[in-house]
Design a protein that fits this description.
It comes from Bacteroides xylanisolvens. Residues 20-104 form the DUF5045 domain. This is DUF5045 domain-containing protein. The chain is mostly helical. Helices cover 85% and strands 0% of the residues. The protein contains 9 helices and no strands. It has helices spanning 2-24, 29-40, 48-54, 56-61, 67-106, 113-138, 143-165, 170-212, 218-249. α6 runs antiparallel to α7 (143-165), α6 (113-138) runs parallel beside α8 (170-212) and α7 runs antiparallel to α8 (170-212).
């Protein structure tokens, strides 16, 4: 019984395969002619009556509009595009080299040539400004006044870092450094004038305080003068009295 079932299953499985093989190899002239006309434009469409009645316009132009003609035209056009592609590739490579130089010029960091040229005098001016800020307390300024000037110093430090990290050409970066240097120089001059004013005010206060501490001797001077005046008057009176007595005795 099992053998019968196995044989039946095998026969049922093989039959579709045999049928598929026979269908695959069935030849259809109409389909072959249509594909041939579509691909290379040779042969004719069959059945002719069918195409004449239902697809007359397609029948007239099918051979001339075959795929081989389009493929050939496209291939010829591709040859013309090779030169254009090479020219475009060459232009893009040149532009890429230029942009690579631009990126290197604008990236800053170790390639910041503007900072190499201007860092010396800018750092020197910033050091002078910082030193003068420390002098504010020495000449009598308050902590709040010193903090006010420190904020300006921090602003300039931030501006320098922003210029160093900015994506810009070295020429523009140099202009930024020079502008910062000019601003620091002007602010430092203002700070120097402020320090001089504080110093003068402090010296004036010290002189006024010293003047107020001088002991006044006006009363003693008046008493001494009065005493001398009395002594002089008494001496004059005695001399006059003595002269009168002497005159009477004569």
């Amino acid at each position: 019984m099992k053998r019968i079932l196995l044989l039946s299953a095998a026969v049922m499985g093989v039959c579709p395969l045999v049928k598929a093989q026979s269908v695959t190899y069935n030849h259809d002239d109409a389909k072959m002619n249509q594909i041939t006309v579509m691909e290379i434009g040779s042969g004719g469409l069959t059945p002719a009556l069918y195409y004449t009645v239902l697809h007359k316009s397609y029948q007239k132009s099918a051979s001339s509009k075959n795929k081989l003609a389009f493929r050939t035209t496209a291939g010829l056009n591709l040859y013309a595009q090779v030169d254009d592609a090479e020219a475009l590739d060459s232009a893009l490579n040149k532009r890429a080299k230029i942009e690579a130089l631009n990126v290197a010029d604008r990236s800053g960091g170790v390639l910041d040539l503007a900072w190499v040229a201007e860092s010396g005098k800018l750092n020197s001016k910033m050091a002078d400004f910082e030193r003068n800020i420390r002098r504010v307390l020495e000449v009598g300024g308050t902590a709040n006044e010193q903090e006010h000037w420190k904020e300006y110093y921090n602003v300039y430090q931030c501006a320098i870092k922003a210029a160093q990290n900015a994506y810009m050409p070295n020429a523009q970066r140099k202009k930024e450094y020079l502008c910062i240097y000019a601003d620091v120089a002007r602010k430092n001059e203002t700070l120097i004038l402020y320090i001089v004013r504080l110093s003068n005010a402090r010296k004036t206060s010290e002189l006024l305080a010293a003047t107020n501490n001088i002991e006044s001797h006006k009363a003693q001077i008046v008493r001494n003068a009065l005493s001398r005046w009395r002594d002089a008057g008494w001496s004059t009176y005695q001399q006059a009295w003595t002269g009168r007595i002497n005159n009477r005795m004569k």
